[in-house]
Amino acid sequence: MYKQENDVVEIIVKEQKNFLQYVRRRIKNISDMDAEDIVADVVFNVYNKVDIQHHIENILAYMYRSIKNKMIDYLRQPSKPISLHQSDEASGRTILECIVDASADIDTKMQQEELQNQLYGALMKLEPKQRAVWIATEIEGYTFKELAAKWEEPIGTLLSRKSRATKILRKLLKDNV
């Protein structure tokens, strides 16, 4: 088992850039994040099934075929844009209204409105999938487990999107301060 695991790791390390290029060449206008997610999902699945290596003559060809299949799945997914003016099912308020506290005084409301506008601007600069997972977890209160089931995405993919989104938002909001 240990030798098989090392063989798979060696292939992954050696070919990772090639895997990413393969995805980018075949899907025009794909974001770096989505290309990395496709490759990461395949790598994760193959690594967790190291014992299949002795059933496969060419593990590298198997990985490229798996990436191709994952790209087909990606292209079949309908993209679902999320609007910050969309009503929350539970409260009936828009996502933007959830950010603002109606009981605050005028100065606080002005500051919150400014923050809301900055946050809105920063969120609009995120890639759609990053924005969707950030809004769903931070504003709408969904758990990653719920989102994984709802969106049929691996939890690890959602976690990495949220992490990237948070880093970008921190940078954007810090630049505006």
Automatic annotation (TrEMBL):
Instruction: State the Pfam families in the record.
Output: Sigma70_r2
Where in the sequence is the signal peptide annotated?
Answer: none
Q: Which residues form a coiled coil?
A: none
The answer to whether the entry has keyword Transcription regulation is yes
An example Gene Ontology biological process: DNA-templated transcription initiation
Q: Which residues form the RNA polymerase sigma-70 region domain?
A: 20-77
Q: Name the domain of life this protein comes from.
A: Bacteria
* Molecular function GO terms recorded: DNA binding; sigma factor activity
Keyword tRNA processing listed? The answer is: no
Q: Which UniProt keywords apply?
A: DNA-binding, Sigma factor, Transcription, Transcription regulation
What family does the database annotate?
Answer: Belongs to the sigma-70 factor family. ECF subfamily.
Protein name, per record: RNA polymerase sigma factor, sigma-70 family
